[in-house]
Design a protein that fits this description.
- By secondary structure, this protein is an alpha+beta fold.
- It folds into two domains: 43-158; 162-251, Beta Complex (Ferric Hydroxamate Uptake Protein, Chain A, domain 1).
- It has helices at 2-75, 82-99, 107-124, 131-158, 190-197, and strands at 162-170, 176-185, 200-204, 213-218, 221-222, 230-233, 246-251.
- The protein has a four-stranded mixed sheet.
- Helix 1 runs antiparallel to helix 4 (131-158) and helix 3 packs antiparallel against helix 4.
Length: 252
């Protein structure tokens, strides 16, 4: 009887061990499959980023070559008619919208482009275009061209890289409003971040560089003659600053 009970207990123990071993095997199998799927997705993502990056660089180099040719004619004018060069510049401006879809996604870029286009139309109406005026428009084009290329590369990077940001809004009555651990895509501007965490109104100024943006109001707090919105980084010796995170403050 004792031997029979011992045999039963031994059989149960073996059965339990077999079930546990099977469960562990199944667990590691699914873990391995999940890892493989994640690895495949990661490789596909890296491949896409590399392809998008190469496409962006090729596009940039092509447009840069066209700009360089026009800049060469501007820098060394030999019987050059700047009216005809302005028409060539107009083609480059049109090409920007055709090549950079990011213009339709980021309002500040679109407004900068529209200002450039309006300036081109205004200059085109003049009968005799001077070298100085053409040079100003050419420089305006080049600045936007480089900004578009940079923003596009940032957008490509943002598909896989996310930043954690701590941002504080300080109102003129002393109230501090923190938005900690706010996640934003890599390459985001402070203006884009502010639009994400607050209701803002702003004015676009073509002469203000690099962003052309002046914030007028954040969450109902308006700028006045004596008060206006500005931004700054927190210094490194602030005790509440978090490592590997970016802290910024908006103050009025």
């Amino acid at each position: 009887m004792v031997e029979k009970r011992t045999l039963i207990f031994a059989s149960i123990a073996i059965l339990i061990w077999a079930v546990l071993a099977s469960n562990i095997a199944v667990y590691f199998y699914f873990q391995n499959m999940t890892y493989k799927e994640q690895n495949i997705e990661s490789q596909q993502s890296q491949t896409k980023i590399a392809a998008d990056y190469n496409e962006s660089i090729v596009k940039y180099n092509t447009l840069l070559s066209e700009y360089s040719k026009l800049y060469g004619n501007y820098s060394f004018p030999l019987n050059i008619n700047f009216t005809s060069l302005t028409k060539e510049l107009g083609k480059l401006i049109v090409n920007l919208r055709g090549n950079y879809s990011i213009l339709t996604k980021q309002k500040d870029l679109n407004e900068t482009y529209q200002t450039l286009w309006d300036n081109y139309l205004k200059l085109s109406e003049e009968g005799n275009i001077t070298r100085e005026k053409f040079g100003e428009l050419l420089n305006e084009y080049y600045e936007l061209f480089n900004l578009l290329a940079l923003r596009e590369l940032n957008e490509i990077l943002s598909e896989t890289v996310t930043l954690t940001v701590n941002i504080c809004i300080e109102y003129k009555n002393g109230t501090l409003e923190w938005h900690n651990k706010t996640e934003v895509p890599a390459g985001s501007t402070l203006f884009q971040l502010t639009c994400k965490i607050a209701n803002i109104t702003y004015t676009y100024y073509p002469t203000i560089k690099p962003g052309h943006i002046l914030v007028n109001c954040i969450n109902g707090e308006n700028s006045t003659n004596n008060w206006y919105w500005l931004w700054y980084y927190r210094s490194e010796n602030k005790k509440h600053e978090l490592k590997d995170q970016w802290d910024a403050m908006l103050g009025c």
